[in-house]
Amino acid sequence: MVNQKKIIEIFEKWAGEKSVSFTPLPISGSIRRYFRIRSNSKTALAVYNTDKRENQAFIYLAKHFGKHQLNVPKIYSQNLNENIYLIEDLGDTTLYSQIINSPGNKFTGSIHLIENALSELPRFQITASKDIDYTKCYPRPAFDKQSIMWDLNYFKYYFLKLSGISFDEQKLEDDFKLFSNFLITADKNYFMYRDFNSRNIMVKNGDLYFIDFQGGRKGPLQYDLASFLFSSKISFNDEQRENLFEHYIESVLAYKKVDAAKFKKHYYPFVLVRILQMLGTYGYRGYFEGKPHFLTSIPFAVNNLKLIIAKKKINLKLPELTKSLLAIVQSDKFLGLVGNSVETKKLTVRINSFSYRDKLPVDYTGNGGGFVFDCRAIPNPGRLDEYKPLTGKNKSVQQFLESQGEVVKFLKESFDLVEQSVVNYIQKGWTDLMINYGCTGSQHRSVYCAEKLSEYLKHKFDINVVVCHTKLNQQDIF
User: What class has domain 4-87?
Assistant: First the structure.
């Protein structure tokens, strides 16, 4: 429990004057809590974190980077027995906010800041790395095979399983071992920042300051570059990524020789492992902890995953992982979210067919609005031999269902309910509505109803319609 009185006491002892304001900052993904405290002439951020080892790692690294003249927040005071420390207040402007608010679609207004960030990165990775005591890093001193397996299994348990994507666990584990064995062959004798992205870079008086490096440890150069260039909500295009990649390599050459072709051999695999780690995080925070705003980041990560698959730069045979990644990028529920990731006022209706043998489809928008219709009340063509191998998309199945009066009645009544909400959502300017049709096998009735509702809505309204059949799909990558 946060002890506000103790935090103010620590601040006033450091400031030498009474505090005049105490403002909690918005809660992010971590368990850390931040508070801005002001007196008449001073300001600081108080950090409250019950993870003592993480506190110790941050304070050690901040002081170490400060000795190397790197722009990180100064440590003003600390009382780690109370899980509190004070740091320099760098304001509220992040590089991320600068990028998304810059004019045009080429990041022209912030490109110099982006390049400056990548120019500073090798100073952390190479210069400051030489005398770091890695035993003080947390949770491990190095990004070793154990760390990589943690990230891969985080993805497996908190994204794949929680999003309902099926896989063979043993085969996937075999692929993870092969993948991690390859990744650890990279040169990993540098400081790996771990969360080097534009949200963790502050802009103050035109200068960049770097925060949230408490998870840093010894590791490869490629990981931090991948983290930055494939950050979920900054959609660099291929040309921008290539130019920034070259800019980073040139910056590294000021400190050490590097073979760009050899560097890329491990770069794209580290891009993939970073994307999987992010999906695991979004799944954990969104599905498991029930924080819907994390689910809105999934489409961006899926889009990056799609780009990496298209490049075919990972020359490893990982059949079960490949199958799982294809299931993600080919799933309408993810692709539809990617398609609507650009800010728009147009309503998107997501229509799912699903099996009641599985769990209900997840509302990735966090909106919570919509309907679930039970198609098990209408005749089932799957009981007839001639229709068993077919689906609700086949003409003969559709003709059979349309000859049944119960089906016509069921569709009309569900359409009327949906239409009422669609009209209401459009009037209110709301952007997301989810409709689910469920049956026993998710092959005939629910698929048919979802398809027919899609046709009806597209014909009647100027809206986005995304259809996902959870039991239909799949193919092959790398």
Answer: alpha beta
